[in-house]
Design brief:
alpha/beta; 2 domains; 7-stranded parallel sheet; 3-stranded mixed sheet; 13 strands; 40% helix; globular; binds nicotinamide-adenine-dinucleotide; binds thymidine-5'-diphosphate
């Protein structure tokens, strides 16, 4: 796919990374239309897109990627489909896995069937480093075997397998990206970083699973989006590209950083019963994507400070979604866990 004046369908564009991608695309000024297609589940939010409503290049369609007729209509005339639409939270996949299979596997298959009807349309399947499973040493490369260990990551691996199958058998032009843990503005506050920020701002304890020494690579949403776009423009059909930073931190370190930035007390950090099947570490090598000219711009320290500041400046945004439905989920996920305060060093 070449550079300019593209029409791009962004499925799941009302969510966290999807809405950051829409913003990123419109800022680049290289597209003629950005068409968002989103079911608006609990994590999809029209507020994430409100600022684009005056832009004539932006269009919103409410729809489900499992609905073949709606998908076929939405895809008509598009040069590319970038699929962010998914159920995305590991803890929810332990409580209610059905929608993960439905949207992440079945929905991706529906998209692939639709893209198959338009041979000049490229699809990017946005996937995750979690498909590799726990990586205790070194860094995952794209040719490593997949070993998903929870229903979320298993459903994302299933979607990838279907994408590769459609490439091999039907020649569908598809590229897969596997991103690291992502943070930044507009992230629904069930995920670790925005959960901690908003809890501290409400004076509530922050729940750290187990010993808190699990490790993640953290990438800013803007860098994840530029990586996805690089794969879309320059990736080779049928190939997989990792998108990671070199920012490797324990959860406890991230928790202390957030508490410090907000001027809170470390006493808010509370160890709670671990997540079952909790992957100890994820780590990516992104050399393959870097060889296409991509590199991340954000360092974790400045990225997390900017993110905390965003949540400070946008209290209305997150207070509106920490609603009764959120409280019900919070109770289901955390209510039964045992707690203890963090050990002093
Ligand atoms: P999110 O939960 O914030 O957003 C998901 C979006 O998909 C929401 O707008 C939701 O309404 C929409 N959606 C859900 N089911 C749908 C359906 N059936 N049809 C249409 N729309 C539907 O998630 P996110 O964090 O922005 O993640 C986006 C993508 O990136 C996902 O595919 C996820 O697996 C992947 N990813 C996320 C991370 C991360 O750290 N957040 C890291 C790597 C990869
Ligand atoms: P999360 O944001 O759910 O992403 P993922 O599970 O996809 O990595 O969690 C990031 C890390 O933070 C992960 O190791 C689990 C941990 N975590 C907690 O310790 N407490 C929490 O309340 C949550 C939501 C996550």
């Amino acid at each position: 796919m070449s550079g300019d004046r593209q029409i791009i369908l962004v499925t799941g564009g009302a969510g966290f990374i999807g809405s950051n991608y829409v913003s990123w695309l419109l800022d680049q000024n290289t597209v003629s239309e950005v068409r968002v297609f989103d079911k608006l589940t609990y994590s999809g939010n029209r507020e994430n897109l409100r600022r684009f409503e005056g832009d004539r290049r932006y269009r919103f369609i409410q729809g489900d990627i499992c609905d073949a007729a709606a998908v076929a209509d939405a895809i008509e005339g598009c040069d590319a489909v970038v699929n962010f639409a998914a159920e995305t939270h590991v803890d929810r996949s332990l409580l209610e896995p059905a929608s993960f299979i439905e949207t992440n596997v079945h929905g991706t298959w529906v998209l692939l069937e639709a893209v198959r009807q338009f041979p000049s349309t490229r699809m990017v399947q946005v996937s995750t480093d979690e498909v590799y499973g726990a990586v205790l040493d070194g860094r995952s490369v794209e040719s490593d075997p997949l070993h998903p260990r929870n229903p979320y990551s298993a459903s994302k691996a299933g979607a990838e397998m279907m994408a590769i199958a459609y490439h091999e058998t039907h020649g569908v032009d598809v590229v897969i990206t596997r991103g690291s843990n992502t943070y930044g503005p507009f992230q629904y506050p069930e995920k670790f970083i925005p959960l901690m920020i908003t809890n501290v701002m409400e004076g509530q304890a922050i729940p750290v699973y187990g010993d808190g020494l699990q490790v993640r690579h953290w990438i800013h949403a803007e860098d994840h989006c530029s990586g996805i776009h690089t794969a879309l423009l320059r990736g080779e059909s049928g190939e997989v590209y990792n998108i990671g930073s070199d920012e490797e931190h324990t959860n406890l370190h991230v928790a202390r950083t957030v508490v410090d930035l907000l001027g809170g007390s470390d006493d808010l950090i509370t160890h709670v019963t671990d997540r079952p099947g909790h992957d100890r570490r994820y780590a990516l090598s992104s050399d393959k994507l870097r060889s296409l000219g991509w590199s991340p711009k954000w360092e974790f320290d400045s990225g997390i400070a900017a993110t905390v500041e965003w949540y400070r400046q946008n209290e209305n945004w997150w207070r509106a979604i920490r609603d009764a439905r959120f409280t019900e989920y919070y109770q289901a996920n955390y209510g039964h866990r045992q707690t203890r305060q963090t050990d002093r060093e």
